[in-house]
Design brief:
Blueprint lengths: L1 E3 L3 H5 L6 E5 L3 H17 L4 E7 L5 H9 L8 E7 L5 H13 L5 E7 L4 H4 L2 H9 L1 E4 L8 H11 L6 H11 L3 H15 L6 H9 L6 H9 L3 H13 L4 H23 L4 H7 L7 H9 L3 H18 L7 H13 L12
Parallel strand pairs: 1-6, 2-5, 2-6, 3-4, 4-5
Helix pairs in contact: 4-6, 7-8, 8-9, 8-10, 9-10, 11-12, 11-13, 11-17, 12-17, 13-16, 13-17, 16-17
């Protein structure tokens, strides 16, 4: 059965399927869907949990063999498998189809992946899950749906918000749901039980954590290398999710690449930034950044942003925070991509 994430509670109330597939690109919503299935499983006596990341070298045969060797007296167990790229390969696809067709007793599978592309969603293993298991399609709210989504989250946190504040908050998070949840948590403290106004939202921005992903993006684009690296180290110390940090840096990288390309094709910089809806207060900073790039540095930036995205999401080997550091350095000093020696 294929459902959207908002139907997961209703589906769980009908009983636990032995195989769940949760697919989407928003870590917050995917994590919440997985938490809902885990909670229902724990209530049914699934006390143990093991996790795997299935990359190109993952041994599916070993996973299946381990399940076949479970003792009659083994505890009920949750087995989670993260498909790093959303493509399990031939062996992985066959193993998933086998798990759906013949699920081991006392074992519940939660398979997660990035959003499947059109071709992958038509493969035999994906169709098998949709018919024999539960396929949860996690969809992020679109730009027109985001204010309503935010209002619902605010109300769930016991907060009411006026329209001006809601619009400001939507602009602040720009569709990043991890950032949205972080802002709502801050607003819960700042509002003090009163309605959330635009002034409160602005104060949340000003009185945020010591280190902020938006400050990091501005420092990198502004080519303040030491400050950018210091903020990055601070974000890591404060436990900020690398996915959230990646979002801010990837957004700036994409903006730079897009603007540089348009300017190179003859569009005046001011017009290119206006059409890209770059805030007027940030245009001088971006103009300076664009002038420091050439075709080679733009290509390196696009490639580095893509690689960093894969590393942070577990699709390529590497250390997420090291990859983020390299991306920061390439944004901040495009002609010197490999800098070292900066300390927090």
């Amino acid at each position: 059965m294929k459902i959207t994430a908002d139907k997961i509670t209703s589906q769980l109330s009908k009983g636990l399927s032995p195989v769940w597939f949760i697919s989407g690109d928003q870590p917050l919503l995917v994590g919440e869907a997985m938490d809902a299935v885990r909670a229902a499983a724990r209530a049914e006596g699934f006390d143990e949990r093991e996790s795997h990341v299935a990359d190109a070298r993952f041994n599916w045969d070993k996973l299946l063999a381990g399940l076949d060797n479970l003792s009659l007296f083994a505890n009920r167990k949750i087995v989670e498998v993260r498909l790093a790229t959303g493509k399990p390969g031939r062996e992985g696809g066959a193993a998933i189809a086998e798990l759906v067709a013949n699920p081991p007793p006392d074992t519940l599978f939660i398979i997660s992946s990035p959003k499947l592309d059109s071709a992958t969603s038509k493969t035999k293993w994906a169709k098998t899950i949709a018919t024999g298991g539960v396929y949860v399609d996690v969809r992020a709210p679109g730009p027109g749906q985001l204010p309503g989504w935010l209002r619902g989250r605010l109300r769930a946190a016991g907060l009411e918000c006026d329209d001006e504040a809601l619009e400001l908050l939507a602009l602040r998070v720009e569709g990043n749901l991890l950032a949205a949840q972080q802002e709502i948590s801050k607003l819960s403290l700042l509002a003090g039980g009163k309605p959330v106004t635009a002034e409160v939202v602005q104060r949340s921005v000003a009185d945020g954590a010591r280190y902020d992903v938006f400050q990091l993006a501005d420092a990198a684009i502004g080519q303040d290398v030491k400050r950018a690296v210091r903020i990055l180290y601070g974000l890591r110390r404060e436990g900020v999710a690398p996915e959230l940090t990646l979002w801010a840096l990837a957004r700036e990288s994409s903006t730079l690449v897009s603007l540089w390309t348009r300017v190179e094709q003859g569009t005046p910089p001011g017009r290119a930034m206006s059409e890209a809806r770059v805030w007027s207060s940030r245009q001088p900073m971006l103009s300076r950044a664009l002038r420091s790039h050439d075709q080679g540095s733009i290509r390196r930036l696009a490639a580095k942003a893509s690689l960093t995205d894969r590393i942070v999401k577990g699709a390529s080997p590497g250390l997420p925070w090291n990859a983020l550091l390299e991306l920061v350095l390439l944004i901040a000093q495009p002609q010197r991509p490999m800098l070292a020696g900066y300390e927090a």
